[in-house]
């Protein structure tokens, strides 16, 4: 990072193992993400990137290891606890609530930061009404932030591909995360959309949200990330600033296969 | 001690019937990931049709011996239930193969009610006694009693199950079934006729169901149009207990459930000082089902069924 | 713009007023034209509407297929029956718990709702980890267990009176007036069927309002999110377990209210009224009408409730005339029709007769869903 003196640890995992039957999907993985950085995760297909993502967002329970976030122990915590602690995510294959409007999708994201229950819903007391109005206002603001406010009332499934990606980011941001985990957000995007996305990610980071990013677009990663970790066969084989990682022989081998002498 | 052995024998007999029915559930589940709710009704149809066929056959006055009449009735019932199974899949499940999961489940319930009510229309809503045509001479077995009929049921069930396992392992159709259950799309690309395999799965499962239905009728001495629900649910429990989708598991689960139920019901009264009597027998199956699903959803030998990413 | 808005508001108001008047005079019109049994039928239809709206929370909103729903109706019915009949009174005499008996309606009704809600949570909690079809079977099993216990809890202590059921249940008494006695207001005689009609109508309206408000709330959004994509809902920080339990509890409590009213209306309850087929009938109402859509569910409840009544009035005379004997039992025919309706609706019009827009969209994206499921499977193994 540009300013090493201000480095503050946000997320740390050590010795993470995850097995699926005979498959050792994650083998002793350790990494640490600092506050305010854009941290990249790359690796060949099947290297365990999405598995790691699922572990970090609580969808998978790791078999062994340590997982702390802001000093809070999140090892084997449920997804809702992880989100509450401040980690939000998007999915590689967009998983929006297709038949809800774009606005409703983002409003669902506010769920974890609001508290109206059945009684509030039934009696519509002033507190509940105010909370509901705040949810709506904040959600509209987030749609604006990612640039799709004009589609607020459209069903999510009718949005264009790029807008669906943006909507997923807005929905994740609605949970007020400190760490935003994006699983291949640029997949399937054209050059202009990718540029727009890059600017959006930089804006999000500038607004104080740390970003964890999986992406295949190496050029995008090199230009965007502060640090990059490389996974291969469930193991971390390299970590560091983009220039170093790019020239690491193990990384080259993982991507190109061992070259016969 | 002889009471225990007696309960064990009764459990084994009932359990091998459960196992035959459980195979029908598990075969369909293995291939379509669908609970064929109507399978219990197929079993009922098998029993009812056989009873009617026997009464027609014996009315001819030829004076056929008892076992021949039963076999004759069964030979009439099996093709009819196979046809019913075939039609159910074509009409109610095939069009919904890509629909949300709720949809085929609801049609399955619908089919189940329709079959049951058709049976009520035909046979009226009364128990029919199963004609007493099979030998049941008692034999002494370690101080307990086992009858000819019970021996026949267990041996026949074992033979049929062995035959089915052999079919799945060795024949072309069996290989195709295994392929479809592992990956439908790939099996299709490899030239397996998926629709044919699925149809055959229903047909074979229904045939097994008919035989099991006759066993139920013969064992309890009666059959009735609404019997399908309970017997189906128990067999489904057996399939889950063994690990749904797993043929060997269905057999193990069936026999185990039969024994749990029989031994449990036999000892429930004495153990609770008469507070809970054997009229709670039917609760056992539900309890086993719920406990298995909560604590070991993969069953004894099968895949996991909990909601996953 | 403003004027038009005002005008449409006025039209809506007039429409509502007319509808209210129709609802108010309906029992008298029905009584005069179709006979007294039809007022009774009207009352029972209201109970089914409440039941169907309760199941709609679970199946329609949260997408959880509950096949044991009638158990909550049973819990409500037995709570009311036991607290308002001589059966338990004998047992409680001299124990210091006599105060439990004959509580006012405004206490018994919430109590029935609460008990049913607690049962909803108890029965729901072990099932929530399960995939949809397993959930269906387990809830079915629970429904049967509840019925079996009601059938057998006549010993060692006689709580439920077993298969004979509980009788001599007292009718509702509200503001000091017992519903068994008719009252005359402005020369119009309101008999018990009329009084029950207005009570049930009020409760049904209450349940409709609660349903509508839940639907457009934070909780309602969470239910829809879970129904649409449970994994994504989890990833949004929704505690899916609690939110699903809430759906079970709310649905069950509506069933409990309906059951309590059933007990007081009939004056008699027995386990026979709570068989699996009843759960299926209520499910058919929700599915046929349109899962998740309140007007659709009400329509479904009315249609399916009326079918057997109409069949009874038509099929039997027809058989007598044409065949001279009764070959087909109308009840039999009714279930056959319900079964066919379930199949037919799912194949041809899965969104029901009167669907919500969202549900319609959802059920017509079969190919998309399959693709999404395949993609999800891939992601899980990525």
Task: Write out key terms for the chains shown.
heterotrimer, A: 261 residues, alpha/beta, Rossmann fold, six-stranded mixed sheet, four-stranded antiparallel sheet, 10 helices, 10 strands, globular, B: 309 residues, mainly alpha, ABC transporter involved in vitamin B12 uptake, BtuC, two-stranded antiparallel sheet, two-stranded antiparallel ribbon, 11 helices, 72% helix, disordered C terminus
3D architecture notes:
The complex is a heterotrimer of chains A (261), B (309) and C (382). Helices cover 38% and strands 24% of the residues of chain A. With 261 residues, chain A is an alpha/beta fold. Chain A has 2 domains: 171 residues, P-loop containing nucleotide triphosphate hydrolases (Rossmann fold, 3-Layer(aba) Sandwich), CATH 3.40.50; 73 residues, no CATH class. In chain A, the strands form 2 sheets. Chain A has a 6-stranded mixed sheet with strand order 6-7-8-3-9-10, with helices on both faces. In chain B, a hairpin with a 2-residue loop joins strand 2 and strand 3. In chain B, helix 5 packs antiparallel against helix 8. The radius of gyration of chain B is 19 Å and the shape is globular. The termini of chain B are far apart. The C terminus of chain B is likely disordered. Chain C has 382 residues and is mainly alpha-helical. Chain C is built from 15 helices and 6 strands. In chain C, helix 1 packs across helix 2, helix 2 crosses helix 12 and helix 3 crosses helix 10. In chain C, 49% of the residues are buried. At the A-C interface, helix 1, helix 2, helix 3, helix 4 and helix 5 of A face helix 7, helix 8, helix 9, helix 10 and helix 14 of C.
């Amino acid at each position: 990072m540009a300013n090493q003196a201000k480095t503050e640890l946000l997320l740390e995992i050590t010795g993470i193992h995850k097995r699926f039957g005979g498959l050792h999907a994650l083998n002793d993985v350790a990494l640490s993400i600092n506050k305010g950085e854009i941290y990249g995760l790359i690796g060949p297909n099947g290297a365990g990137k999405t598995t790691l993502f699922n572990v970090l967002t609580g969808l998978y329970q790791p078999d062994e290891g340590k997982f702390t976030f802001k000093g809070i122990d999140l090892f084997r915590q449920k997804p809702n606890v992880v989100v509450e602690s401040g980690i939000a995510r998007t999915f590689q294959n967009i998983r929006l609530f297709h038949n809800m409007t774009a606005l409703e999708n983002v409003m669902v994201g506010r769920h974890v930061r609001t508290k109206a229950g059945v009684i509030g819903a039934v009696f519509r007391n002033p507190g509940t009404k105010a909370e509901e109005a705040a949810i709506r206002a904040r959600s509209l603001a987030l749609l604006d932030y990612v640039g799709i406010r004009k589609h607020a009332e459209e069903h999510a499934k009718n949005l264009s591909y790029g807008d669906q990606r943006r909507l997923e980011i807005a929905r994740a941001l609605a949970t007020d995360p400190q760490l935003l985990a994006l699983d291949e957000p640029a997949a399937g995007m054209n050059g202009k959309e990718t540029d727009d996305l890059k600017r959006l990610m930089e804006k999000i980071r500038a607004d104080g949200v740390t970003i964890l990013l999986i992406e295949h677009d190496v050029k995008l990663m090199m230009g965007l990330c502060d640090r990059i970790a490389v996974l291969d066969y469930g193991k971390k084989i390299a970590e560091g600033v983009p220039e170093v990682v790019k020239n690491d022989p193990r990384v080259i081998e993982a991507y190109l296969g061992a070259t016969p002498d | 001690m002889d009471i225990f052995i007696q309960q064990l024998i009764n459990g084994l007999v009932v359990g091998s019937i459960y196992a035959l029915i459980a195979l029908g559930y598990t075969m369909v589940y293995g291939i379509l990931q669908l609970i064929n709710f109507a399978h219990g009704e197929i079993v009922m149809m098998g029993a009812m049709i056989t009873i009617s066929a026997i009464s027609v056959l014996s009315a001819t006055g030829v004076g056929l011996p008892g076992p021949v009449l039963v076999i004759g009735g069964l030979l009439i019932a099996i093709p009819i239930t196979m046809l019913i199974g075939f039609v159910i899949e074509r009409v109610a499940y095939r069009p919904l193969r890509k629909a949300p999961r709720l949809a085929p489940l609801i049609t399955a319930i619908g089919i189940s009610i329709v079959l049951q009510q058709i049976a009520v229309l035909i046979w009226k809503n009364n128990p029919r006694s199963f004609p007493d045509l099979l030998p049941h001479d008692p034999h002494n077995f370690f101080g307990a009693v086992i009858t000819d009929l019970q021996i026949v049921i267990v041996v026949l069930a074992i033979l049929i199950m062995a035959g089915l396992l052999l079919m799945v392992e060795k024949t072309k159709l069996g290989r195709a079934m295994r392929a479809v259950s592992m990956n439908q799309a790939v099996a299709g690309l490899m030239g397996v006729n998926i629709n044919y395999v699925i149809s055959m799965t229903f047909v074979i499962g229904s045939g097994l169901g008919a035989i099991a239905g006759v066993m139920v009728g013969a064992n309890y001495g009666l059959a009735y149009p609404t019997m399908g629900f309970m017997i189906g649910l128990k067999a489904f429990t057996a399939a889950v207990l063994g690990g749904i989708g797993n043929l060997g598991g269905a057999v193990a689960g069936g026999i185990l459930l039969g024994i749990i139920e029989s031994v449990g019901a036999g000892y429930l009264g004495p153990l609770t000082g008469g507070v809970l009597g054997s009229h709670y027998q039917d609760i056992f199956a539900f309890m086993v089902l719920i406990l298995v699903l909560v604590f070991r959803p993969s069953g004894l030998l099968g895949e996991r069924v909990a909601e996953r990413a | 713009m403003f004027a038009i808005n005002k005008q449409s508001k006025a039209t809506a108001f007039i429409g509502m007023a007319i509808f209210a008047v129709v609802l108010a005079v309906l029992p008298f019109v029905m009584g005069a034209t179709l006979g007294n049994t039809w007022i009774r039928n009207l009352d029972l239809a209201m109970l089914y509407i409440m039941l169907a709206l309760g199941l709609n929370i679970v199946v329609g909103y949260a997408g959880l297929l509950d096949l044991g729903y009638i158990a909550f109706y049973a819990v409500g019915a037995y709570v009311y029956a036991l607290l308002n009949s001589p059966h338990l009174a004998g047992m409680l005499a001299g124990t210091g718990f006599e105060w439990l008996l004959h509580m006012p309606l405004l206490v018994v009704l919430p109590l029935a709702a609460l008990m049913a809600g607690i049962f909803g949570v108890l029965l729901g909690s072990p099932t929530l980890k399960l995939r949809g079809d397993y959930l269906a079977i387990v809830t079915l099993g629970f429904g049967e267990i509840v019925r079996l216990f009601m059938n057998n809890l006549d010993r060692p202590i006689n709580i439920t009176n077993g298969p004979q059921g509980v009788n001599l249940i007292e009718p509702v008494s509200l503001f000091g007036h017992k519903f068994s006695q008719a009252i005359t207001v402005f020369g119009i005689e309101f008999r018990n069927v009329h009084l029950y009609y207005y009570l049930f109508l009020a409760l049904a309206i209450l349940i409709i309002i609660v349903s509508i408000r839940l639907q457009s709330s934070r909780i309602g959004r969470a239910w829809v999110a879970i129904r649409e994509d449970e994994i994504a809902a989890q990833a949004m920080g929704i505690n899916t377990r609690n939110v699903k339990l809430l759906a079970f509890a709310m649905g069950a409590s509506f069933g409990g209210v309906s059951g309590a009213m059933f007990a007081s209306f009939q004056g008699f309850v027995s386990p026979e009224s709570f068989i699996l087929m009843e759960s299926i009938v209520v499910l058919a109402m929700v599915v046929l009408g349109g899962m998740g859509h309140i007007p659709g569910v009400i329509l479904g409840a009315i249609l399916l409730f009326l079918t057997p009544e109409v069949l009874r009035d038509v099929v039997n005379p027809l058989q007598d005339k044409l065949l001279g004997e009764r070959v087909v039992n109308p009840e039999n025919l009714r279930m056959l029709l319900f079964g066919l309706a379930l199949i037919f609706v799912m194949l041809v019009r899965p969104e029901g007769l009167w669907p919500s827009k969202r549900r319609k969209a959802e059920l017509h994206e079969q190919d998309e869903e399959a693709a999404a499921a395949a993609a999800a499977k891939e992601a899980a193994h990525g």
